[in-house]
Specification:
By secondary structure, the chain is mostly helical. A hairpin with a 5-residue loop joins β2 and β3.
Length: 451
């Protein structure tokens, strides 16, 4: 039984490792990491601050350090690579596949890259250089450039013989690609058909329909497609239809996980690189930008409030109730924003269904707005015994919650059209809208009705 299988969850594993770190016995630490697979080692390293992580590296078996580096977060990889020489990196990447080598070299400086390129097998080097030619946010950067493909017109028996001689299949290969002489993808052959069909038949007779991704497609768009189609294997082609790689189950999972992680971070104004144990100054800097933007929007809301200084001076109850209006609108808008951003991520919003979404969210906002406006109004009446204040807060809650739901739809859709990530700035803009509309409606109504 592997060491990680002794624990019911990752928390127990971490607690055990922390106990080992508190003892002077190092043999147990060596054994601990020897029993873990590379992915578990990577996740374990990510669960400790930099100082502890640096001491843990010496207990990781040398033969898997390259694979672990390819799995850990980019900032951890960069910290480890920073103090290594070119020859050290050459040893680390020896025996890795092209995807793993590309990941490791992503954070290396140009001199180290040049030196490592020269040490690589010619085929691996070509694949790594091809991967590095892509932008970080496109499918080509995630794909496995090493494909199992055969030319059209050959027999199934010949394909099996070819695969056995060259040891082409691995744990991730699920289909064989059929290409023409120019390597243009014609279709795929499943391993089941390869085995069970008559061996004197040619591959052309058993070609399956296939779905492909363009190598320049944005990863976020690809993630939405893969989720909607529930695909675990996809050929990747260039704009000319030439086969350039494939996405295996692990690649598909990485794309969807990265896309989900980025969406979650962006919704909170956190940078792409920040993790739980990112150093203090780096975290403070990345978050500070959005805190500054939020401060500007807060002053905008304060400016709106300042325009109603006269009515606030005369009626203290308005100042007490004002946060309630903004809070209810903010929550209602955030609920809608979350649903819409998810719909955009899944590729569910396009064309006429946007109009249906507007109508639906307007009615949801009005329904909830009416119910909670009456509840807040009732509380305000018992609190202040003033029917005019009750009327003002009731109308303001209803208006703000109704408009907040519409803003929750409009803000992400407009940002998407402007090619701005809705998850990155949608929450800040929506908060501004709901605050300004809430204060403006509440204080404006108070000015009209009470004064």
């Amino acid at each position: 039984m592997r060491d990680d299988e002794k624990y019911t969850n990752n928390e127990e594993l971490l607690l055990h490792l922390q106990k080992l770190l508190d003892t002077p016995e190092t043999a147990a630490l060596h054994e601990f990491f020897t029993e873990l697979d590379t992915l578990d080692i990577a996740r374990t390293l990510e669960s400790f601050p930099a100082k502890t992580r640096d001491s843990l590296w010496e207990f990781i078996p040398e033969e898997v350090i390259g694979e672990v580096l390819a799995e850990v977060d980019e900032d951890i990889r960069a910290d480890y690579i920073e103090d290594l020489s070119a020859s050290d990196v050459e040893q680390i990447v020896k025996g890795l596949d092209a995807q793993e080598v590309a990941e490791v070299l992503d954070v290396a400086d140009e001199s180290i890259k040049t030196s490592v390129y020269a040490s690589l097998d010619q085929d691996i080097r070509a694949q790594v250089e091809n991967l590095h030619a892509y932008e970080d946010d496109v499918v080509g950067r995630y794909m496995d450039p090493e494909t199992v493909n055969v030319k059209q017109g050959v027999s199934l028996e010949a394909v099996q013989r070819y695969i056995r001689i060259h040891h082409l299949l691995d744990d991730e290969s699920q289909q064989i690609m059929i290409t023409d002489k120019d390597k243009r993808l014609l279709g795929t052959l499943t391993l089941i058909d390869l085995i069970k069909q008559p061996q004197d038949g040619v591959v052309d007779d058993y070609i399956n329909d296939f779905f492909t991704l363009n190598d320049q497609m944005k990863v976020s768009d690809a993630a939405a497609l893969l989720r909607s189609k529930e695909l675990h294997f996809v050929p990747v082609c260039d704009s000319d239809g030439l086969l350039v790689g494939q996405l295996n189950a692990a690649d598909v999972l990485e794309i969807t996980q990265d896309d989900a992680d980025l969406t979650l971070k962006h919704m909170s104004g956190v940078s792409d690189e920040e993790e739980v144990f990112t150093p203090i100054m780096r975290s403070a800097k990345s978050r500070g930008i959005w805190l500054g933007i939020n401060l500007l929007t807060a002053f905008l809301a304060a400016f709106v409030i300042g325009q109603f200084e006269a009515v606030l001076d005369q009626i203290v109850a308005l100042a007490i109730l004002m946060p309630v209006v903004a809070s209810m609108g903010g929550i209602a808008g955030s609920q809608t924003l979350t649903v819409v951003i998810r719909g955009l991520a899944l590729g569910q919003l396009a064309g006429n269904n946007k109009r249906w979404l507007y109508n639906k969210e307007l009615w949801v906002g009005m329904s909830n707005g009416l119910v909670w406006a009456l509840v807040v109004g009732l509380i305000a009446y018992f609190w202040f015994s003033d029917p005019l204040i009750t009327l003002v807060i009731t109308l303001a809650i209803f208006l703000n919650m109704s408009l907040a739901n519409i803003a929750g739809v409009l803000v992400p859709l407009v940002l998407k059209r402007l090619q701005i990530d809705p998850a990155l700035s949608g929450a800040v803009i929506l908060t501004t809208v709901t605050d300004v509309v809430g204060f403006l409606s509440f204080l404006g109504l108070a000015t009209l009705i009470i004064l």
